[in-house]
Amino acid sequence: MASPATSPAPSEEDGAELEHDRLIADVFARACTSRGILEHVTGRWGTLALAALAEGPFRFNALRRKVDGVSEKMLAQTLQALERDGFVHREAEPTIPPRVEYSLTLSGRALAEKLRDLIEFVEAQVPDVTAARTRYDAAKARA
């Protein structure tokens, strides 16, 4: 890393970039951009789409079948948001009809790996959660 004495003076154009680099993300702050990103990633369809794409590229309808229950509209919106955030890559081949395939970017792959860990944890907890719900419901019924 260059010392401040040897670094070239930032231009006015670089000023915006330097200011951007100094921003601190804080998901607990109401106006922080990270909140919207977190919403895209952790929403029901975002999590499932990213986890599915971790298995490899999918065409839209194949991905829709994989993510059982998602509507065409919701999947399209979800993929668009994840593409905009840089987690999903959309490749459209200029054929008739167009062939569109979705895959994960490097950031998307890293994120999907973390989501897969969460999904595996949740799936492993189903018996314990079911038992806890049964106890809770029984206690509420007695109250």
Description:
With 143 residues, the protein is mostly helical. It has a single domain (26-142), classed as Winged helix-like DNA-binding domain superfamily/Winged helix DNA-binding domain (Arc Repressor Mutant, subunit A, Orthogonal Bundle). It is 62% helix and 10% strand. It contains six helices and three strands; from the N terminus they run αααβααββα. The chain has helices spanning 12-22, 33-42, 44-53, 60-66, 72-84, 106-142, and strands spanning 58-59, 88-93, 99-104. The chain has a three-stranded antiparallel beta sheet. β2 (88-93) and β3 (99-104) form a beta hairpin. α2 crosses α3 (44-53) and α3 packs across α6.
Cα(first) to Cα(last) distance is: 65 Å
Q: How large, in whole angstroms, is the Cα Rg?
A: 21 Å
Would you tell me the structural class of the helices and strands?
mainly alpha
Low-confidence stretches: 1-10
| Count of structural domains | 1
Query: Beta-sheet strand percentage?
Result: 5-15%
Order of helices and strands: HHHEHHEEH
CATH superfamily: Winged helix-like DNA-binding domain superfamily/Winged helix DNA-binding domain
Largest sheet: 3 strands, antiparallel
CATH fold node name: Arc Repressor Mutant, subunit A
Q: Specify the oligomeric state.
A: single chain
Mean pLDDT: 88
Pfam family, one: HxlR
Domain HTH hxlR-type: 32-130
Organism: Amycolatopsis acididurans
Protein name: Helix-turn-helix transcriptional regulator
